[in-house]
């Protein structure tokens, strides 16, 4: 009977935790950016030039999370955008930290979140204390100025899509995708392979629709490595339901034996 009680408790906990652990997903995906920007390479061309994969999956993720002691993530700019800053914000506290100023000069940046929830750089220096384990990214255009977030709900009505709030797109880089083009030159050895289904391409629209946005989403494009994907609510609920089913089966079996 003790084992049955334990299974029921675990199942109940997991179903309750499902809503707590799952972070919000962006709606209205996929979104198709303008494929013919004037005098510029399209986002599709940029992605094709840097990843040997013609079928990158556009994701609804806008917020990510990391676990204690996880490997460092690497933010890599592989297209020179307009003047601006690439940064990370805490989903829980709203703190914003600039990771890269003018990516045309600084090509790479490493960051991590330590066991205490502090945002640290690749040298272990604290960038923001009590940052938390859930986060999104932003691009701040410094000429307008204008700021775009990976989380649609933070963009108000400054963007694109049916809700006029899309300012960033996220693409999950599939396992074993060959990294090519300019992006490959940032790594040693050259020609790295994306692994573990936890690498992402982030593409931002620099201007708001009121400031002349053209919807091409090629203004600031980044490769972010080793981010844990956000668990969807259904995943946790199904796991909890499975354990509950196992517990019920165990109870019925015990009743038969009695």
Describe the fold and architecture.
- By secondary structure, the protein is an alpha+beta fold.
- The protein has 2 domains: 1-22 and 232-258; 26-230, no CATH class.
- The protein has helices at 2-21, 43-50, 181-184, 233-257; strands at residues 57-59, 64-65, 73-77, 84-90, 96-101, 108-113, 119-121, 126-128, 134-141, 146-149, 168-173, 199-204, 220-225.
- It has an 8-stranded antiparallel β-sheet with strand order 1-11-12-13-3-6-7-8, with helices on one face. Strands 2, 4, 5, 9 and 10 form a 5-stranded antiparallel β-sheet that branches.
- Helix 1 (2-21) packs antiparallel against helix 4.
- The radius of gyration is 21 Å and the shape is globular.
- It starts with a helix and ends with a helix.
The helix content, as a percent range, equals 10-25%
Low-pLDDT ranges: 1-20, 233-251
Number of domains: 2
Apparent shape? globular
β content, as a range?
25-35%
Assembly level:
single chain
Largest sheet: 8 strands, antiparallel
Number of strands: 13
Overall mean pLDDT: 79
């Amino acid at each position: 009977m003790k084992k049955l009680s334990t299974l029921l408790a675990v199942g109940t906990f997991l179903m309750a935790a499902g809503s707590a652990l799952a972070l919000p997903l962006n709606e209205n995906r996929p979104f198709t950016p303008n494929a013919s920007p004037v005098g510029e390479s399209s986002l599709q061309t940029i992605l094709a030039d840097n990843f040997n994969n013609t079928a990158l999956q556009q994701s609804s993720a806008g917020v990510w999370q990391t676990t204690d002691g996880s490997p460092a993530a690497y933010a890599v700019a592989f297209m020179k955008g307009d003047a601006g800053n690439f940064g990370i914000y805490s989903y829980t506290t709203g703190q914003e930290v600039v990771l890269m100023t003018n990516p045309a000069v600084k090509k790479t940046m490493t960051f991590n979140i330590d066991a205490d929830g502090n945002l640290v750089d690749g040298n272990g220096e604290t960038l923001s204390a009590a940052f938390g384990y859930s986060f999104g990214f932003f691009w701040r255009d410094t000429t307008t100025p204008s700021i775009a977030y990976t989380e649609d709900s933070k963009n108000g009505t400054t963007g694109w899509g049916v809700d006029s709030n899309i300012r960033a797109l996220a693409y999950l880089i599939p396992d074993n995708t060959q990294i090519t083009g300019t992006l490959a030159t940032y790594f040693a050895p050259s020609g790295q392979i994306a692994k573990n289904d936890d690498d992402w391409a982030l593409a931002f629209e620099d201007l708001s629709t009121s400031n002349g946005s053209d919807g091409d989403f090629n203004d600031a494009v980044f490769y972010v490595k080793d981010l844990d994907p956000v668990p969807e609510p259904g995943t946790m609920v199904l796991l909890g339901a499975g354990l509950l089913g196992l517990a019920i089966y165990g109870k019925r079996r015990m009743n038969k034996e009695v």
